[in-house]
UniProtKB/TrEMBL annotation:
SUPFAM superfamilies: CoaB-like
Originating species: Phanerochaete sordida
Name of the featured protein: Phosphopantothenate-cysteine ligase
TM helices/strands, residue ranges: none
GO biological process terms on file: coenzyme A biosynthetic process
Family affiliation: Belongs to the PPC synthetase family.
Top-level taxon in the UniProt lineage: Eukaryota
């Protein structure tokens, strides 16, 4: 998982892009993003880039094996729906086959399509208990299709992710403060450079496997400093130890100077998160995690009670809070 402030990167972003090849579909993907952004600018809509799902790290050029992570893309897909509802145009950059807005309600593992249909002779109908939700989801989906406010594109590897993030950020540059980056994807910290990969399937005859991976460049740095002009940047920090959430989030803000880190712990992420931001809107200046002055940061916990309201999604509150903060940010051009 990404831990943006842990150690110095072995590859700078510049070295990374100079040595690792772009995905073959990049150019075509970006032409479609350009068209989408132009339409949203003409309609004077705010645009949010939502990244979602996990990245893979291939171990071979002819890929048989790869490292992956747990992320199903729930956070990203759910948040994208709430951003659309709030009037944003959404670029949904997600891991291929991970959850997507709207269709996520009918995921094959949790709510399979065939189970909510009945058949009577040659007629197929939706079971009555399923209709209210389906009608609501379908209406919202059709409305978004008609308005043309959702653009989806996919990545698989961490390399795809990095190239796409850089290219899309550059397309959002002209939007200035009307762009938001909502970086919920679970991005690998480590990768195997192409130059070190075995061409063919790694053979098992030689006993145990030792692989040395390089560190993925700290991509928030060029995103904040070069690729975007005043975009509102929200990164996520996942930990399995609650005690690390706030110090790690503060360290990321101090290092990169962006607007918000949303901290979440693996097992409680569906019902509590913490927003960490620089106090008074000013980025905190410090390099060392232990020496960071707590008074330079603000923390806001969002919690939902699933026992009281099991259907509530925390992303509704996350997005409402961000929309409010982004509004203030966009209005303040100083
Ligand atoms: O995809 P999901 O809903 O299962 O999980 C979401 C999440 C935990 C990957 C996301 O909230 C997050 O923290 N993303 C950044 C993870 C990281 O530190 O790299």
């Amino acid at each position: 998982m990404a831990s943006d402030e842990d150690q110095a990167a072995s590859f700078s972003a510049e070295q990374y892009f100079a040595t690792q090849p772009p995905p073959p579909s990049l150019e075509a993907d970006i032409v479609r993003v350009q068209e989408f952004v132009l339409r949203q600018r003409a309609a004077k809509r705010k645009v949010v880039l939502v990244t979602s799902g996990g990245t893979t790290v291939p171990l071979e050029l002819n890929v048989v094996r790869f490292l992956d992570n747990f992320s199903a893309g729930t956070r990203g897909a759910t948040s994208a729906e709430y951003f659309l509802k709030a009037g944003y145009a959404v670029i949904f950059m997600h891991r291929q086959f991970s959850l997507q807005p709207f269709s996520r309600h009918y995921s094959h593992s949790t709510h399979p399509f065939l189970d909510f249909l009945d058949v009577d002779a040659e007629y197929i109908e939706v079971k009555s208990a399923e209709r209210p939700q389906l009608i609501e989801v379908l209406k919202a989906y059709k409305q978004v299709q008609k308005a043309g406010t959702l653009h989806s594109l996919t990545f698989v590897t961490v390399n795809d992710y990095l190239w796409l993030l850089r290219a899309i950020s550059k397309e959002l540059y002209p939007l200035g403060r009307n762009a938001m980056f909502y970086l919920a994807a679970a991005v690998s910290d480590f990768f195997l450079p192409r130059q070190k990969m075995s061409e063919h399937k790694i053979q098992s005859g030689k006993g145990s496997l030792h692989i040395e991976m390089d560190q993925v460049p700290k991509i928030l740095k060029p995103l904040v400093e070069e690729w975007t002009r005043e975009g509102y940047i929200v990164s996520f920090k996942l930990e399995t130890d609650n005690a690390l959430l706030i110090p790690k989030a503060r360290a990321a803000l101090a290092r990169y100077g962006h607007q918000v880190v949303i901290g979440n712990e693996l097992h409680t992420r569906k019902y509590q998160v913490v927003f960490v931001s620089p106090a008074n809107g000013k980025p905190a200046q410090a390099e060392n995690e232990e020496e960071l002055d707590p008074s330079k940061f603000s923390e806001t916990w969002l919690r939902i009670d699933l026992a009281v309201n099991p259907a509530k999604e925390i992303e509704e509150d996350i997005v409402a809070e961000l929309v409010r903060r982004h509004q203030t940010w966009a209005a303040d051009s100083s």
